[in-house]
Amino acid sequence: MIAAIYARKSTDDSDRNEEARSTTRQVERATEYAHAKGWTVDPRFVFVDDAVSGAEWKHRDGWNALLAALEPRPPFGVLVVSELSRIGRDTVRTPAAVLALEEAGVEVRSYLSDAPITLADESGEISTVFNSLAASFERRRARQRTRDALERRARAGAATGRRTYGYQHARNGDGYVHQVVDEAEAAAVRQAFALYADGASLAGVARALTARGVPPPPQSPAWSGGAVRDLLRRTMYRGEVTWGKRQAIMRGGTAALKHRAEADWITAPAPGLRIVDDDLWARVHERLGAVGATFARRRDGRLLGRPSGEDVESRYLLSGIAACSICGASLVGKLRGPDRTPYYGCVRRHKAGPRGCRNGLLIRQDVLDAEVLGVLVRALDPKIVAEAVRGAVADLQADRAGAVARRAAVAADLGQVAARERRLLDALVDGDGTAEAIRGRLREELARRDALTAELTRLDLEPAIDGEKLAQDVAQRAQDVRAVLGRHVAQARQIVRLLLVDRLVCEPCDDAGGRGYAFRALGTYRKLGVPAVERLGNHGGHTDACRVGLSTPPARARRPVARRP
Ligand SMILES: [Zn+2]
């Protein structure tokens, strides 16, 4: 009989017996065992997995090759392993693997116990299931030992992962890699905290650090608002280490990372790592907290949108949302005049003068904001919203009427195909015509039937839509959103971005109607978080119907609002 061998070594086997720790040894012992039994070991059927957990089933090359070798019929009659835990260490997939081998006609043998591993009889089943259970427990204990070791290291002030900005890794002879404050980076950390505490934006802090030539953190190519935000949140800078934020788990037979709840994180004081004093830390986090309160929420507290960096930092509703129709660049807010009145103007014109863009029209912020908000509020009128949704649903229903007709046609076609197949089969049986020609036609009919059946299935899957309910849901949501529009800028900006399909294009005009900006905008209800609306929109060709006609007759901000810089 030909014997195959499977050997596996895992990262969680560190303190187990000699057998588990070396795949070479497992293969040697298994080979000896096979020879003693009078079996032949074929080197092509020696499968090895190194450093793979006993709960990992997906990324296990050796095991997958073994399974592949079983098809179409196994080239070996017996599989030798050191013990069941080499196949796996869980209670469900391991017995299932043994079962798969047995069903393929392969006997599984453990050389350590010189016994079969089987599910074929009662005592075999009991012992296999029991050993799987024991192996699974052992794996859990190994996990816990790893976590305990990590905790000991963290408590001893040792590094438990990658280098953190502000610290260097150093060995001091106790076997652990310690972290020591890097004075140059620590100075940059303090600068970032101080700048932010004094009112700079995240992006502003990033710009200041770049301007001062401070090298960015190791994982970032350059200073950015995001990099600064990460840095401001790092509790190590106030002399505290935190670990266990994420947990390695098995999901679907493969390894995954899960975020632990904050209550389960482990933190310990590490005064030697402190870079920022408590007062500065508190000032920064008070400001970060205030910013966090700007997330737009519905009445039930669910999140409607997340503020972008600009949402939080901009005092202007439309900065970066409105665009110049001449050059396509953003309109941004600028303070002008001795009384520092806020205006919007083309950013390219602002930066490069008339060479950058010929649109030099400035418009007062409050005027344009009020005009755009007015349009949005009108567009969010529950009656108008409900009407728009009804229109979209009606389009969809008309389409469904077409689908019903199409369904009938397809069903009739299918009937004819079946009749033709029947006749062809009869002809084949009776020996009329050449068999080859009949087979060819039969194949054509079968292909046609497959296509028709597939279409029928698709037509039947189209979900029904309760148009009235949907219209009410969206109108309700629109009302929630409308309420948020009146709140402060950071929240209103999120809503405006949510409602607009694209940017708000502003066209400067200077004619008999006066000077000002005309704007058009295409709105959408699709992002309001009503699932069926998204379905409407995703339904082929109906995206248009879901859009809100925000494009009013060019709303024009008149009044003496514009002036040349
Ligand atoms: Zn422009």
Any overview of this molecule?
The protein has helices at residues 18-21, 23-36, 61-69, 84-87, 93-103, 122-155, 183-197, 202-211, 225-233, 278-292, 309-313, 347-352, 365-379, 382-430, 435-461, 467-485, 489-499, 531-538, 543-546, and strands at 2-8, 40-49, 78-81, 107-110, 115-117, 167-171, 177-181, 240-243, 246-251, 254-259, 266-269, 322-324, 331-336, 341-346, 363-364, 504-511, 514-520, 523-524, 547-548, 555-556. With 565 residues, the protein is an alpha+beta fold. It folds into 4 domains: 2-151, Resolvase, N-terminal catalytic domain (Rossmann fold), CATH 3.40.50.1390; 167-288, Hect, E3 ligase catalytic domain fold (Alpha-Beta Complex); 296-398 and 465-565, no CATH class; 399-464. The strands form 7 sheets. Strands 2-1-3-4-5 form a 5-stranded mixed sheet, with helices on both faces. It has a 4-stranded mixed sheet with strand order 12-16-17-20, with helices on one face. A 3-stranded antiparallel sheet has the order 13-14-15. Strand 13 and strand 14 (341-346) form a beta hairpin. Helix 7 (183-197) crosses helix 8. It starts with a strand and ends in a 9-residue tail after the last strand. The relative contact order is 0.07. The structure holds zinc ion. The site of zinc ion has 9 residues, from helix 12. Zinc ion binds next to helix 12.
